[in-house]
Amino acid sequence: MNRCLVNISDLNQYLYCPRRLYYLMFYQTQEINVHLADGRGLHSYQGRRGGWYREFYLKSEHLHLHGRVDLIEQENGVLVPVERKRGTSYYENDLVQLAAYAMLLEEHLGERIATGYIYLYGKNTRHPIEITDHLRRKVVDTVDAIRAMRVGSIPGFCENPRKCAKCSVVVYCMPYEARILEEA
Ligand code: SF4
Question: Are 110 and 79 in contact (CB under 8 A)?
Fold first, then answer.
């Protein structure tokens, strides 16, 4: 992992569960579970079908961020980022990820980007997302939190067992076993 620049996809991982990012960062546990595999397959399928799959690598020393934007579209003469998601809904961590792409893009272009889009494969719908000050602040705060992570300080378990059921590092994290031990 680049200790200076945070990968934008790590923002999403951290906001899903800081402990999950901890394992991905320090234990190299890039296990692909069915949820990840499904998402990757959809990405490549959509790209081939639509012909609009483009990847654009951006980085910013100022923001301490780097990442590859899935798709950039032109709308009324303005470039906007599009983030594509598996499923039928999106969450705040997806909005923060989109905002991070917008912030990188606007630094690269030298102009403000007010809107991005989230595309949901599960419903084949596009959703305009305002890049608000709240989202921008969340990007900065999350980058700071990730850069402060250390191998000797493991974050706690997340509170939502449904997240654990879908988590790609559950076999390393062992939340169920830990809870049984705690209750024994
Ligand atoms: S299994 Fe649960 S607690 Fe552990 S990293 Fe994943 S989401 Fe977080």
Answer: no
Long-range contacts (CB closer than 8 Å, 24 or more residues apart) made by 8-13: 8/65, 8/66, 8/67, 8/97, 8/100, 8/101, 8/104, 9/67, 9/97, 10/146, 11/93, 11/96, 11/97, 11/100, 11/139, 11/142, 11/143, 11/146, 12/93, 12/94, 12/96, 12/97
Query: How many angstroms does the Cα of residue 25 sit away from the middle of ligand 1?
Result: 14
Q: What mean pLDDT is reported for the chain? A: 84
List pocket residues of ligand 1, CB cut-off 6 Å. 17, 19-20, 157-158, 163-164, 167, 169-170, 173, 175
Centre of ligand 1 from the C-alpha of residue 29, in Å:
13
pLDDT tens digit sequence for 137-171: 999 999 999 999 999 999 999 989 899 999 989 98
Domains of the chain: 6-183 (3.90.320.10)
Nearest residue (by CA) to ligand 1, atom 2, is 164
